[in-house]
């Protein structure tokens, strides 16, 4: 049997690599030894895709890219590298060429869009007192507080950066829809997942942070994708 691919986890807006902590533990228990989580600068799609490409380039074998939220746009942009064997989208944006997360959002704004505010330096924040209800309403209040206080704000301009050459047109993909998502409208998730013709779509009754509230189910989908490309 071929070796398992390296799994590279790509976070989205308002979080860092540690948002994957529960998925990392679940995958480790499943026997995945080659795990990496990118820490994105969240300064532009070009910067974030380049940081991801650099991590992919450091791997000696096949790589499965997994993106949450805006991380889906990043793996879409960075995923055409020859050693990338598949793409897994977790409640994620999947833009086509010439599309951005912002343009997709405009078609069906999410429930919590009013809780996202810019600061005087051009960064976007989720209001701390609204973070739990907006981003991770199915986690505990304590977990929500930690995510709120440690949130990593993106430059607002990043939201409008267009994808150039979508990797999902050339690589097998999988998608997890969060049916109770207040940050990416579930209707947009359904549309994006349908048009990329993924090998599998699963729907979880979760908020946006399904990688934390439904880590075992998310890890199971990643495991299935890894087995399919092995």
TrEMBL record:
InterPro entries named in the record: AB_hydrolase_1, AB_hydrolase_fold, Sec-Metab_Biosynth_Hydrolase
One family name in Pfam for this protein: Abhydrolase_6
Domain AB hydrolase-1: 7-220
SUPFAM superfamilies: alpha/beta-Hydrolases
Coiled coil: none
Listed PANTHER family: AB HYDROLASE-1 DOMAIN-CONTAINING PROTEIN-RELATED, ESTERASE_LIPASE_THIOESTERASE DOMAIN-CONTAINING PROTEIN
Protein name stated in the entry: AB hydrolase-1 domain-containing protein
């Amino acid at each position: 049997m071929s070796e398992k691919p390296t799994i590279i986890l790509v976070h989205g807006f308002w979080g860092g690599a540690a948002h994957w902590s529960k998925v990392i533990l679940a995958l480790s228990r499943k026997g995945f030894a080659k795990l990496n989580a990118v820490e994105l600068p969240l300064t532009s799609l070009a910067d974030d895709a380049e940081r991801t490409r650099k991590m992919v380039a450091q791997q000696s074998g096949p790589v499965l890219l997994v993106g949450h939220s805006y991380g889906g746009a990043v793996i879409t942009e960075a995923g055409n590298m020859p050693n990338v064997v598949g793409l897994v989208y977790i409640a994620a944006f999947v833009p086509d060429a010439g599309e951005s997360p912002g343009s997709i959002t405009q078609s069906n704004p999410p429930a919590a869009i009013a809780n996202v505010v810019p600061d005087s330096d051009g960064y976007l924040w989720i209001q701390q007192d609204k973070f739990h209800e907006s981003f991770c309403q199915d986690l505990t209040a304590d977990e929500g507080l930690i995510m709120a206080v440690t949130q990593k704000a993106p430059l607002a301009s990043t939201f409008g950066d267009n994808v150039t050459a979508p990797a999902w047109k050339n690589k097998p993909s999988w998608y997890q829809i969060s049916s109770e998502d207040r940050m990416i409208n579930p209707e947009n998730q359904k549309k994006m997942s349908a048009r990329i013709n993924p090998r599998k779509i699963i729907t979880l009754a979760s908020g946006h942070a399904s990688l934390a509230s439904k880590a075992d189910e998310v890890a199971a989908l990643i495991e299935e994708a890894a087995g399919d490309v092995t």
